Amino acid sequence: MDKLLITGGSRLSGEIRISGAKNAALPILCAGLLSGDEVELSNVPRLQDVSTMLKLLRQMGLGAAQDGERVVLNGSAIDKLEAPYEMVKTMRASILVLGPLLARFGEAKVSLPGGCAIGSRPVDQHIKGLQAMGAEISIEAGYIHARAKRLKGARIVTDMITVTGTENLLMAATLAEGRTSLENAAREPEVTDLANLLVKMGAKIDGIGTDRLVVEGVERLHGASHAVVADRIETGTFLCAVAAAGGDVTLRNTRGDLLDVALDKLREAGVVLTSGPDWIRVQMASRPRAVSFRTTEYPGFPTDMQAQFMAVNSIADGVSHVTETIFENRFMHVQEMNRLGAAIVIEGNTAIINGVDHLVGAPVMATDLRASASLVIAGLAAQGETLVDRIYHLDRGYDGMELKLRGVGARIERVKS
Ligand code: EPU
Fold it and tell me: Residues 6 or more apart from 326 whose CB is under 8 A from it?
């Protein structure tokens, strides 16, 4: 298992090119199931989750030619309507094949994802929405088996805001008979990016970017070309790295308007930010100030940035409170940060962080994707060497993170074991 060896204390300077968003690319790849024509994608990030999704889609018969960040999908020969347990258990986003398969082929069999490191994460809302559209759904031997001759438009109000739930139902609704309204829809930029692609494919969607998506179903969708939106979480991760380690870095191929609240919080921490339409420059010359926040759905502070920001707070001047409201178990990084000398205690769903003067490198263990990123940031800011174990989590969701960091002067290397 690979590890990352980080020697902390270097200021970061230079440029980083941000990749396409993982959480937009995954549903967008599944949208290829909705059409018999070609869907040409660019700015697709090169990461393990994308490879896993392509493997899953190919075994269903979806043509998928990948050349760097370009992927061409062809849905003319899909012959297997199943997502097996072996694949779903490694990547929960596999649930995103359910809506498209059911809508286009009238049947789908997808393994139930089960729990994961950050919480129980049920998919009841995906099921409830498809049932409202007329699907017959049974759970057999750990599989969701869904059938519907043709889905019918419905008014669906989800109990909570769910990102992949909205995406699954949105894809299903594009080919349903009649009008579907998705109330309480997620407004994350990744949902908007998927909706924009679907419109290019001929879907009729109103309210894109709002919490009410209204879809007029069509008979078929056609091919389209689309560039995946910039990864706002990768962007925020590098911003936090500079906030913690200090330096002057320009991020290219990204957009500040995708992460307004996180940028405000970074300014509050003392970071100097300037930006243009497709770049953000981050400068940090001092110790950060402690900043409190609570995670909420978009456009609020993203749960996917909570751990990375906590790394900044761990060495900040002052005490901060960080409340996680989306997932019940997303503080796994706290124990590991404390091993580096951070002073963090957890009370319920709030972490209280007493900023320390400095962290000291140590061996630490990554537990999930964003926790891994937070430990890398902590390692960059710490004195001495930090060895981050189980970085396969990082490879799932970041396109060449250590190469990008090395490019701006970080001392970080991959150790094979
Ligand atoms: N929920 C339910 N029932 C459902 C669906 C969701 O109870 O049917 C609950 C979840 O358990 C959670 C909350 O609703 O407590 C929100 O979950 P959501 O469905 O929005 O999360 P998700 O769609 O499974 C996506 C991202 C996550 C990100 C969350 C929140 C993808 C592939 N994943 O997950 O990304 O944290 O939205 O923004 O888009 C990551 O990239 O590291 C990551 C975990």
Answer: 295, 296, 297, 303
Q: Any catalytic annotation for residue 116?
A: yes
CA of 297 to the centre of ligand 1 (A): 10
**121-178, pLDDT tens digit by residue?**
899 999 999 999 999 999 999 999 999 999 999 999 999 999 999 999 999 999 999 9
Of all protein residues, the one whose alpha carbon is nearest to atom 37 of ligand 1 is 163
298 within 8 A of 269, measured Cβ to Cβ: no
Let me know: does 210 contact 183? Beta carbons within 8 Å: no
Q: Which of 5, 72, 112, 116 is catalytic?
A: 116
Q: What confidence tens digit (pLDDT) does each residue in 203-259 have?
A: 999 999 999 999 999 999 999 999 999 999 999 999 999 999 999 999 999 999 999
Q: What is the pLDDT of residues 7-36, one digit of tens each?
A: 999 999 999 999 999 999 999 999 999 999
HSE-CB for 127 with a 13 A CA cutoff: 16
164 lines ligand 1 (CB under 6 A): yes
Residue 14: helix, strand or coil by DSSP? strand
Cα–Cα nearest to 21, from 241, 362, 265, 298: 298
Closest C-alpha residue for ligand 1 atom 11: 121
Tell me, in angstroms, the distance from the centre of ligand 1 to residue 183's CA: 17
Strand partners, 252: 17, 279
